[in-house]
Amino acid sequence: EDQVTQSPEALRLQEGESSSLNCSYTVSGLRGLFWYRQDPGKGPEFLFTLYSAGEEKEKERLKATLTKKESFLHITAPKPEDSATYLCAVPPRNAGGTSYGKLTFGQGTILTVHP
Amino acid sequence: GAGVSQSPSNKVTEKGKDVELRCDPISGHTALYWYRQSLGQGLEFLIYFQGNSAPDKSGLPSDRFSAERTGGSVSTLTIQRTQQEDSAVYLCASSWTSGGTDTQYFGPGTRLTVL
Question: How many angstroms separate the CA of residue A36 from the nearest CA in chain B?
């Protein structure tokens, strides 16, 4: 069974203090990894999809990277508006080796950025 | 542009009553997913639809839960004889297809409280 583990559970940063969030997974075969951001009382908002080891994607102060066993979400010079829960998720693979849509999510990292 | 919409946004009900939760996916998206998010829990998959068919219902916690989708668009999640443990945020997502690497876009959720 696919497992996704995120660390730390919570992270408190000062504005401008860069850091990284970790998402490790035990899945059979790499077939994509998703990052989402979730604000309180809202649904998850899509950030990135990474498809293969070595891939990197950036959006404003966020950069996501992927290895064969884990993904990192790097936050450079964060601002208070970056405060949110960050979720990673992987799709399963069926017996035929193709993936389909049901996502397995990690528990999330609650990021708080203080001014 | 129109995203995924869900109604109601909040629902308070008494134990033993039936509830219906509605999801309107993004126009043109053929795949639709239901997830549940409880306090302290991650997002838990319930069921997904490809068109009007539900290939995977494995996440439905009991036979009190059912879902349908009509016209390849709107979906309704029904919970019969609600219990207090059903209290959670119910999230709907849609994607172009049910292929595992298609991005799932989430709605704002319905917060269900069972008294």
Answer: 10
Distances (CA, A) of B17 to A102, B20, B78, B86: 29, 10, 11, 12
d(CA B71, CA B81): 27
Question: Does the pLDDT value for residue A99 go beyond 80?
Answer: no
β-pairing, B43-50 vs A56-59, is: unpaired
Please judge whether A101 and B107 are an interchain contact, meaning their C-beta atoms are less than 8 angstroms apart: no
**Distance in angstroms (rounded) separating the CA atoms of residues A104 and B69:** 22
Encoded tokens for B35: 């997830």
Which of B43, B56, B103 faces A49 most closely, judged by CB atoms?
Answer: B103
Write out chain A residues lying below 8 Å of B93, CB-based. Answer: 43
Q: What is the percent of chain A with per-residue pLDDT over 90, rounded to a whole number? A: 73
A68 touches chain B (CB under 8 A): no
Q: What's the pLDDT tens digit per position in B59-99?
A: 999 999 999 999 989 999 999 999 999 999 999 999 988 77
pLDDT band at B39 (very low <50, low <70, confident <90, very high): confident
Q: How far is CA A75 from CA A36, A61, A113, B47, B62, in A?
A: 14, 6, 11, 33, 40
Give all strands (DSSP E) within A55-98, no chain letters. 56-59, 62-66, 70-75, 84-90
* The pLDDT of residue B1 is above 60: no
**In this complex, do B103 and A101 lie within 8 Å of one another by their Cβ atoms?**
no
